[in-house]
Amino acid sequence: MKALTLEKYGLPKKVLRLTEQKKPSYQKNEVLVKIHSTAINDYDWSLVRGKPLMYRLMFGLVKPKSKSLGMELSGTVEAVGSEVTEFEIGDEVYGDTSAHGFGTFAEYISLPPKALATKPKTMTYEDAAALPHAALLALQGMKEIGGIKNGMKVLINGAGGGVGTIGLQLAKIHHCEVTGVDRQEKFEALSNLGYDHLINYQLENFTKNGIQYDLILDCKTDKLPFSYARSLKANGVYVSIGGKINYLLSTLILGKALSVISSKRFEILSLKSNQGLKEIEGMYENKQIKPVIDGPYPLSLGPDKLQEFGNGYHIGKIILSIIT
Ligand SMILES: NC(=O)c1ccc[n+]([C@@H]2O[C@H](COP(=O)([O-])OP(=O)(O)OC[C@H]3O[C@@H](n4cnc5c(N)ncnc54)[C@H](OP(=O)(O)O)[C@@H]3O)[C@@H](O)[C@H]2O)c1
Fold first, then answer.
1. pTM
2. For an engineered disulfide with 157, which of 69, 181, 190, 194 has Cβ 3.0 to 4.6 Å away?
């Protein structure tokens, strides 16, 4: 089978190659999936470069332990192990495989059933590959932790990425006033998507403009919690889903302390993969959410598209199609 693989860390166009690999075997408690589409995620960008260096404790110190990238997929079940009861051959499936490993930048992958969900018939393969990771980061961050309510004033930092573009739609279901923070070049598209206000992070620090929010969803934490506290109303919630490691640590430690001494709450989301997909499916089928898709592109363009992801040129999710 064809797969995008890497032997060493580096920039995608230098180290990522389309290679011929053995079709994976599957265990009696696994499902073999023929992949239709996959999406590029922050994990892929980190894994290919081995950065931040701390990630090498997980990925391999000197070179990557695994040659494979990709952790989101849609496809069809090609074979099932003898102990699998959840799926049958021919079922259309999708999911976030991050809790079970990488390997979706390929024609086939074998996985335990809990890495997968049944893809609704009305959902395209491209949308199905775009939703599991980003939509659940947004849902778990804004609803489970953030407790989003009708009419709240919400800020999304990293407004134009996979999470931000779905987060906006979740907030609009609740009739919230939503401010997005991202770079100027994306403003026209983000305004068309429905953001009420936009802030260019390259020119303005939103924590210094005096405006306060009920809920902040931060995809790019790069400040101390004291700064974010200025932008929260009383009883406001700051939810970080990712960012610079030193600032995430300070959110964890100082944020917890601030949560104790003030009415403002500071939280970091730890994604529970695939939990909440039924709710996302409902919103998708009711046409309340729709992922913003860049692509689909052929797998062979994966190295270029991963570089573009790293450069931040994309809006929404970059999708690679394995079957075209
Ligand atoms: N908590 C968990 O369990 C978990 C699990 C997986 C992933 N994550 C995290 O979730 C996040 C993924 O978000 P995503 O998929 O939406 O990422 P994304 O698609 O890369 O989007 C991020 C957006 O933020 C913008 N941006 C970059 N720097 C910024 C800054 N300093 N201020 C404001 N905006 C900025 C980017 O634009 P430009 O780069 O063009 O400026 C881009 O539009 C990552 O931080 C990842 O590490 C968390």
1. 0.96
2. 181
